[in-house]
Design brief:
Transferase(Phosphotransferase), domain 1, serine/threonine-protein kinase, five-stranded antiparallel beta sheet, alpha+beta, four-stranded mixed beta sheet, Phosphorylase Kinase, domain 1, Alpha-Beta Plaits, 3 domains
Length: 408
């Protein structure tokens, strides 16, 4: 009989790296939430190469280390090299399952866990952290400075690092470094080396559209609304042209700079999509999520168009979508055809566009270039008809109706 001692630290995911020394081999780093799943995977791996598991024991420590001990037979004790090769071959055959469950289809260009550092890897000695701006489930956002520039610093919390969080973090770095557009938040750099992992982007002093509308209680006039919507469409046109699906388009992920230019942000769940490819992940936020995504049906970039329709409704009404429902109730309703109530005083062209964008059939939804053309045409018409500029909100103590400065 052989005793195999398999140790791993419950940290963040990387591909397993196995070496065998006197029947002890290491299994990289895995998330704490996957520890029990790891035990099952290891058991399956040993069975896959023909080993008989006689006993199995699991030990864990408070600092994140685990040790799985298997007593097995079915392999010559002296043939450690052969066992090592058999284990490596088994892992290669089952590579997908070792990285945890994945919703990605073959159509997605997925990211390897390790990106080689480049000019975007920051020198942390030059990063000065300021106060916290916001806090999320897996990380915190800070105001800081880097090389004299105001920046936003998204820091992952070490205690929440797991395979999925790490993958989203690296995916966001991968996408941000590939994009550059006026209406996409500008990437400055990242730190992908322990002990602290962070993404640095331009500082958006205007905050999110969600806060602007729902927390600051601004009510947008038509000109302002259209300018914001055009900004979002321009950013989304750029992303879709490059095969990037955002997958979590909502007002909380639409940020404003000091000139109130709106930019698309937060690419943690965004993905590249190859031509003609589809995906089936349930990804995003329920109140803004397309029905085909909720239903785990194949979807493409038209899922972003549906989310944009909900954003448009939000900007028109200054309300949170389905505000009398829980997110899960809203999701069930959307699956059954529920949509937000149509606002009575909205421009008829906006209402028509909004309803086409949230069609249940994705093929009936317009693409972002067509949406952009319609919005720009309507904006031009509205500006020509009014010839007015409403008071800047910075000088409006009640913060009710407003128009941001024009921008290019």
């Amino acid at each position: 009989m052989l005793t195999l001692k398999i140790s791993y630290r419950t940290f963040f995911g990387i591909q397993p790296c196995i070496t065998v020394h006197s029947m002890m081999f290491m299994i990289g780093h895995f998330a704490h939430s996957l520890a029990s799943n790891m035990f099952c995977q290891l058991s399956a791996l040993l069975s896959d190469i023909g080993l008989n598991i006689r006993e199995a024991h699991v030990f864990s420590t408070h600092d994140g280390y685990s040790l799985d001990v298997f007593v097995v037979d079915g392999w010559p004790i002296e043939d450690t090299d052969g066992l090592n090769k058999a284990l490596e071959a088994s892992i290669l055959r089952n590579e997908g399952s070792w990285s945890g469950s994945s919703h990605s289809s073959a159509a997605e260009r997925t990211l390897p866990f390790q990106l080689k550092g480049g000019e975007w890897e920051i020198d942390k000695r030059l990063l000065k952290m300021g106060g916290m701006i916001a806090s999320g489930s897996c990380g915190d956002l800070y105001h800081g400075t880097y090389l004299g520039e105001d920046v936003a610093v998204k820091v992952l919390r070490a205690e929440h690092l797991n395979k999925n969080v790490w993958n989203e973090f690296m995916q966001e770095v991968y996408i941000l470094r590939e994009v550059q557009h006026t209406n996409v938040v500008r990437f400055i750099g990242a730190c992908t080396k322990p002990p602290q992992f962070c993404i640095i982007t331009e500082y958006m002093s205007g905050g999110s559209l969600y806060d602007f509308v729902h927390k600051q209680h601004n009510v947008l006039n038509l000109t302002t609304l259209l300018k914001f919507a055009v900004d979002v469409c321009q950013g989304m046109c750029y992303l879709h042209e490059r095969g990037i699906i955002h997958r979590d388009l909502k007002t909380a992920n639409l940020l404003m700079d000091k000139d109130r230019v709106v930019k698309v942000a937060d690419f943690g769940v965004a993905r590249f999509q190859d031509q003609g490819g589809i995906m089936t992940a349930e990804t995003g936020t329920y109140r803004w999520m397309a029905p085909e995504v909720i239903n785990h049906q194949p979807y493409d970039n038209k899922a972003d168009v549906f989310s944009f329709a909900i954003v448009l409704w939000e900007l028109i009404t200054s309300k949170i979508p389905y505000d009398t429902m829980t997110p899960l109730q809203a999701a069930v309703g959307v699956r059954q055809g529920l949509r937000p109530g149509l606002p009575k005083k909205a421009h008829p062209k906006l209402l028509d566009l909004m309803q086409r964008c949230w069609e249940a059939d994705p093929s009936k939804r317009p693409a972002f270039p067509d949406i952009l053309a319609e919005l720009e045409d309507l904006l031009s018409h509205v500006q020509g008809a009014s010839g007015k500029t409403v008071q800047d909100p910075a000088n409006d103590s009640n913060k009710r109706r407003l128009t941001p400065p024009a921008h290019t």
